[in-house]
Amino acid sequence: MRYIDLFSGAGGLSLGIKKAGGTLLYSNEMDFHASNTQKHNLKFLKEDERKVITSSIEDLHKEVIGKNINVEYRSETVHSHQSMRDSYKQTSQATPFQIKLIKSVSDVDLLVGGPPCQGFSNVARGKKKSFKESEHSFVDDPRNQLFKYFLDFVEFHSPKFVLIENVKGITSAKDYLGLIMSSLRKTNPGYIARYDLNNASNFSVPQNRERVFVLGIRKDLKDAENLYFYFPQILESFKKLPQFVLEDAISDLPKIRSNPKKNNAETIHEIEIGKKQSWGEDVSTKKYTELIQQKQPYTKLINQFRGKQLKPTNLYNHKCRYNNDLDLKAYKLMKPGKYLNHKENFDAVQIIPYGTERENGVMKYTSSFVDKYFKLDPQKPSKTITAHLLRDNNGFIHYGKIPRGISIREAARIQSFPDWFRFTGPFGNQFKQIGNAVPPLLAEAYGKIFYTFLNYGFNETLKLNSLK
Question: For helices 224-237 and 440-456, what crossing angle results, to 10°?
Answer without folding.
Answer: 140
